[in-house]
Amino acid sequence: MNAELALLGIATREGTLNRAVERGVGRHWFVAYPHVWDFYLSHRERYGELPSSDVVNTTLDVGVVDVEGTMDWAIDMLRDQSISYGLRIISGAIDKAIEQGHVSPVKVASQVAERAQRLMADYEEYSDIDVVHDFR
Fold this sequence. Notes:
single chain, 7 helices, elongated
């Protein structure tokens, strides 16, 4: 299940994005569907309410999923999916740099810690974890 569409489906059912916004969800959490998040925000701004599933499906040709679950559950699932994606991107870039001989393994390890720290800072409940300090 795609966590992005699940969160938006729950928001559609509940008629609000307030809890998601309160918990820091933003465009940067969305990997596959940032344009759908943007559409929800612009629709809410323009019309004072979230779009229906039919409006999203018709306008963007995206099937928003109506799942049984709470908004907090969907936010947690989306956060974990987004962090995992970010770490895979960092890992892939580092592997490529090492393969091409551009950086030493020590420099790579330092960069991993620093990038992971920046990534974690984007997620409110992890912002107090000091990955760089713990690494050293």
